[in-house]
Amino acid sequence: MFTMVLKRKAFMKKEIIISLSKTFEESAYEQDGVEYWLARDLQVLLDYSEWRNFAQVIDKAKTASKNAGQNVSDHFVDVNKMVELGSGAQREVDDIMLTRYASYLIAQNGDPRKERIAFAQSYFALQTRKQELLEERIALTERLQAREKLVTTETELSKIIYDRGVDGQGFGRIRSKGDQALFGGHTTIKNLSVA
């Protein structure tokens, strides 16, 4: 019986995570290729009922951004929007456009006792790791491509040198000069005798 309860709780947690992840991504807007969220939407997503409480978290996130050397206005952009009141009338309210980085800082500065904040903190940690892995893979791919290009170029150069009749010692001198140019004056060939 106890095992079934644990499995049910784990399944419910998984459902909540999937739901919140989807909701968060679907709440994003895009303008000129820049992804952003609106603070009042994020307030609801992170389960803050009052704007004044959420505004305090935003202020902490702004401070964290500033202390990290970021330009706060690049990640937190003040805007106004119209909201519909219960009477059907509309009123202008303050809002903030938030980058993914700003949303991350808000989650990190939120109340982790709230289930949605705890989810957001985990979500951003995972997204950050995914981005790191992606950047590592791109860098590795670029290094491999550069190495393949170097091998192809060196093979072609060696073929041209031998086709021109340069002997082994001449080839060694050419390679040594190239290595010196590439490696800041250091050569890969020792005790090269000059003819």
The strand count comes to: 4
Rg of Cα set: 29 Å
Q: Kindly state the mean pLDDT as a whole number?
A: 80
Give the helix tally: 7
Shape: elongated
Number of domains: 2
- Secondary structure: helix percent: 55-70%
SS content category: alpha+beta
Query: What pattern of helices and strands is seen along the backbone?
Result: HEEHHHEEHHH
- Tell me the strand order in the biggest sheet: 1-2-4-3
Largest sheet: 4 strands, antiparallel
Taking the alpha carbons of the first and last residues, their distance comes to 89 Å
Residue share in β-strands? 5-15%
Stretches with pLDDT under 50, minimum 5 residues = 4-12
Could you explain the architecture of this structure?
A hairpin with a 5-residue loop joins strand 3 and strand 4. This protein has helices at 2-26, 39-45, 51-67, 72-75, 100-109, 115-163, 168-182; strands spanning 29-31, 34-38, 76-84, 90-98. Helices cover 65% and strands 13% of the residues. The termini are far apart. The model is unreliable at 4-12 (pLDDT under 50). The chain has 2 domains: 2-140, no CATH class; 144-182. With 195 residues, the protein is α+β, with helices and mostly antiparallel strands. It contains 7 helices and 4 strands. The chain has a 4-stranded antiparallel sheet with strand order 1-2-4-3. The radius of gyration is 29 Å and the shape is elongated.
How would you summarize the topology of this molecule?
Layout (H helix, E strand, L loop, with lengths): L1 H25 L2 E3 L2 E5 H7 L5 H17 L4 H4 E9 L5 E9 L1 H10 L5 H49 L4 H15 L13
Antiparallel strand pairs: 1-2, 2-4, 3-4
Helix pairs in contact: 3-5
